[in-house]
Specification:
This protein is mainly beta. The protein contains 3 helices and 25 strands. Strands 15, 16, 17, 19, 20 and 23 form a 6-stranded antiparallel β-sheet that branches. Strands 21-22-18-24-25 form a 5-stranded antiparallel β-sheet. A 4-stranded mixed β-sheet has the order 2-7-6-4, with no helix packed on it. A hairpin with a 4-residue loop joins strand 21 and strand 22. The longest helix has 20 residues, at 2-21.
Length: 412
């Protein structure tokens, strides 16, 4: 009995061993590892770029790409994909005695150029800004900037801030912050205080959201406002709020606000005829935190404007001269580039204080370019203050009619 039990038990054991030893692929489970550009992914590339797909496998006899991205049947290999224009996945299936194995990698396509692309769907998140003044972007003491933006409505790993000069020639990452950190905003907003790339130059910024390897631009209009940081303890103050306006055409005075960001309504002076005089005001505004005791260089470019026959030096006048706070130094007029250059120099013991405004006025005359004689043309006036300009220092393009031409009102 015991012997029979032993034999029965032994037979079951032997049978079991025989079955398992003859099972195809037992202990030889196939595996495959597919990588894109050397990593498991997902990866973000520029639209139209190619990728390198490589794979290795074990316990396999053949491998086949799904969707035909390669014709190779090797169990290991590397190929370059065709140019990728949209988000997609690459899959490979390998077969061996023990069954099949599958691996997939994903590529996200962003825009060509800066900032790491923009894969995925747009996020509902934008910085509060405008193209002229930093609405919702507040200068803090010593140049730090407080950004405010909407909370995104989808999952986000972190935010990234990119910056460029005002002409957006090159973009570089300025800051990166996890969403958990940027939770001090009011209500459904987020806020982040950051330092600008330097304390002098005007720059622009972009806010990006980043999620699972994909990056998406999140600013409302793709470009933040031009920012001119306050220089810390430099004595140079901040002239980024300086502005200019047209204040008189012929002898018709136009109402304007020295601190306003909009140009005066010129309708009382219409139509403007070639040869009319135009008076401009440049308002030097210290919106910084320290006095400005250093000279302020102003370069004014006058497209289709020239110096009047009367009024030496364009009739430059500054209100700070009448109060003995400054003096004007005329540096000359370049007729080739139609540029008037002058300095506003604080007198000894005086300076442009924070919140103070010094206004310089001058008069020019409209003149048609040589190739548009007796035809309508436009004039514009743009100022550079200490080498910097912007929308506040640029007037609109104003239409000028040739002498004797009927006005729009007369035509109507």
């Amino acid at each position: 009995s015991s012997s029979a039990d032993y034999n029965l038990s032994n037979n079951i054991s032997v049978v079991g061993l025989v079955v398992q030893s003859n099972c195809a692929g037992f202990g030889n489970t196939p595996t495959v590892d597919l990588k894109i550009n050397g990593v498991d992914g997902p990866v973000t590339i520029s639209k139209g770029a190619s990728t390198t797909l490589s794979w290795t496998s074990t316990n396999t006899t053949t491998c086949m790409a799904q969707d035909g991205w390669t014709n190779s049947t090797s169990t290991a290999g590397s190929v370059s994909s065709e140019p990728v224009d949209s988000n997609r996945s690459f899959t490979i299936i390998c077969t061996g005695p023990g069954g099949t194995a599958t691996d997939t990698v994903r590529v996200e396509v962003g825009g060509a150029g800066c900032c790491g692309g923009g894969g995925g769907n747009p996020f509902n998140s934008h910085v509060y800004n405008s193209s002229t003044v930093p609405v919702g972007v507040n200068m803090q003491p010593c140049g730090t900037i407080l950004m405010t933006w909407d909370r995104p409505t989808t999952n986000v790993d972190r935010f990234r801030i990119y910056y460029s000069g005002v002409n957006f020639e090159n973009w570089a990452k300025l800051n990166e912050v996890s969403i958990g950190y940027a939770t001090s905003g009011p209500g459904n907003k987020l806020q982040l205080e950051f330092y600008p790339p330097n304390q002098v130059d005007i720059f622009r910024y972009r806010l990006y959201t980043y999620f699972q390897g994909a990056e998406t631009m999140a600013t409302k209009d793709s470009l933040g406002s031009p920012i001119a940081p306050v220089k810390c303890d430099s004595g140079a103050g901040d002239l980024s709020s300086s502005n200019k306006d047209i204040i008189k055409i012929r002898n018709i005075a136009l109402s304007y606000n020295r601190l306003g960001s909009q140009d005066s309504n010129i309708s009382p002076a219409l139509p403007i005829i070639e040869g009319n005089t135009v008076e401009f005001a440049i308002n030097l505004v210290n919106s910084g935190t320290t006095d400005m005791a250093e000279p302020i260089l102003v370069e004014d470019v006058m497209a289709n404007l020239v110096q009047p026959t009367s009024g030496v030096g364009f009739g430059l006048v500054a209100d700070c001269v009448s109060t003995s706070k400054c003096k004007l130094e005329l540096l000359g007029y370049d007729a080739t580039f139609k540029t008037l250059r002058f300095k506003v120099v604080p007198t000894a013991g005086h300076s442009l204080a924070p919140g103070e405004v010094w206004t310089v006025t001058f008069t020019a005359k409209t003149q048609a370019p040589s190739n548009r004689r007796n035809q309508p043309f436009r004039f514009q006036n743009k100022a550079y203050v200490n080498g910097l300009s912007g929308p506040l220092l640029t007037t609109p393009n104003i239409l000028v009619l040739p002498v004797g031409a009927p006005s729009i009102e007369e035509i109507q």
